[in-house]
Amino acid sequence: MGILNTSVSGMTADSNWLSSISQNVANSNTTGYKDVETQFTALVDEIAGSAQPGQGVVTSLMSLNSVQGSVVSTQTSTDLAVQGSGFFIVSDSTGATFLTRNGSFVPDASGNLVNSDGNYLMGYDAQNGGQVTNSLTGLQKVNVTNAQLAATPTTSGKLVANLPSTASVVSGTLPSANSASSTYTDETSMVAYDSLGGTHTLDVYLSKTGSNAWEIDVYDHSAAASGGGFPYSSGPLATTTLSFNGTTGSLTSGSPLSIAVPGGATMSLDLSGMTQLASAFSVTSASANGNASATLASTSFGANGQLTFAYSNGTTQPGYDIPLGSVASPDNLTTLSNGRLLAQAKSGAISVGLPGTGGLGQLVPSSLESSTVDLATELTDMIQAQSSYEANSKAFQTGTNIFDVLNHLTP
Q: Which H or E run contains 106?
């Protein structure tokens, strides 16, 4: 019976080998698929004192998840590949979390990025204050169509400029008087936003009033007289006096300046970088926060995992931080249907980090990872498996012949 049992186990093992070869060949073009390897293990009778030889062979399957596939460029901006170690963290329709290397993500009807296996890409929502926790906590479905930019009023700004120390003191009517005869030394402007996202140009007048003193007056440009300038239909939004150190030319007082933006909030304008030096008037920086409402124009991924949103008004903002998951033993992950990989005791628990950190690979945008199946190797293994199956069947036939001889013996 040992002959029959051993040869049957051999045929079963070779049949399993052929099944795994067939699985590999069928998935040779599946994105992110990892080659499945059949491992053979001998069975031995361990009963004490037994004279029986080996009891045959058993097989087990191992998915070679740690092997890097070729990265191929595509024309789809939301296609992603991992160059190096790590897996995309995805969820299925039930919300359960898995790992995968299939990065063929496209927006579904709701704008959520879903791959060809039906798994949703997970990330940290940076646009709405989501923090990178380096854990599965806080991960959300990545959505690329509902990220509209809401209007934000201006609350702060910064003006950095040099005021010429050689300028003459203004002797006439200052801009603060809002008179047609108002005179000033220099002028600049900057843009601020109201509560509805409307833009307001602020006219900033700078007038030298003493050896180390200047007056700053801010007006709403829309209230200027026909053709621009004085008199404005309403008084200044803000007025202050700047004082400078006569030796160093640095500002000693007058910053910040509070400006009531029409229809918006109070803007705190930082003037601490202003100088009074013996050179021409020049503006180094004139900026303010806030923005108008805008629609999403495009998205782009970075190698560090950051998904950036570009809006119709020309601004950009971080949208999501896309982490990668890893385990201590990737080849011991349990392979499920639809390209899902499940962590279990042998693989170790999932650890999370951003691409390029902690030994994790980089994201490669507009690319996909090819299957690791080598067809030439699979066809060679197929011939070996077939030959081995035939040899085991011959051993089984020999065993049955021996039984036939024994059954026909007469006393």
A: strand 106-107
The 3-state DSSP class for residue 255 equals: coil
**Closest to 86 measured CA to CA, from 267, 386, 341:** 341
Q: What are phi and psi of 186, to 5 degrees?
A: -145, 165
% of the chain beyond a pLDDT of 70: 97
For the stretch 125-159, pLDDT in tens is 998 878 888 899 999 999 998 777 888 999 999 99
Distance CA 381, CA 390 (A): 14
CA distance 112 to 127: 15
| CA atoms within 13 Å, Cβ hemisphere of 326 | 19
- What is the location of CATH 2.60.98.20 in the chain? 156-288
Instruction: Write down the residue that tokens 């010429």 correspond to.
Output: 164
CATH number for region 156-288: 2.60.98.20
Residue 176 is classified by DSSP as G
| CB half-sphere exposure, 374, CA atoms < 13 A | 9
From the centroid of its chain, how far is CA 283?
A: 37
Cα–Cα distance between 9 and 39 in angstroms, integer? 14
CB 304 within 8 A of CB 157: no
* Dist. CA 42–CA 50, nearest whole Å: 17
- Residues 71, 367 contacting (CB under 8 angstroms): yes
User: Cα–Cα distance between 149 and 84 in angstroms, integer?
Assistant: 34
Tabulate helix, strand, coil % of the chain (nearest 5): 15, 35, 45
Please answer whether residues 242 and 253 qualify as being in contact, where contact means their C-beta atoms are separated by less than 8 angstroms.
yes
Report pLDDT digits (tens) over 165-204: 999 999 999 999 999 999 999 999 999 999 998 999 999 9
Instruction: List 42's β-bridge partners, or say none.
Output: 57
Cβ pair 322, 142 in contact under 8 A:
yes
Per-residue pLDDT band at 343 (split at 50, 70, 90): very high
What span, in angstroms and rounded, lies between the C-alpha atoms of 1 and 321? Answer: 62
Counts of helices then strands in the chain (DSSP H, E): 2, 29
Kindly indicate the confidence band of residue 297, based on its pLDDT and cuts at 50, 70 and 90.
Answer: confident
Residues ≥6 apart with Cβ < 8 Å to 133: 124, 352
**Count of CB atoms within 10 A of residue 400's CB?**
12
Task: Please name every residue paired with 252 in a beta bridge, in sequence order, or none if there are none.
Answer: none
Question: Distance (Å, rounded) from C-alpha 323 to C-alpha 133?
Answer: 10
What is the mean predicted confidence (pLDDT) over 85-103?
95
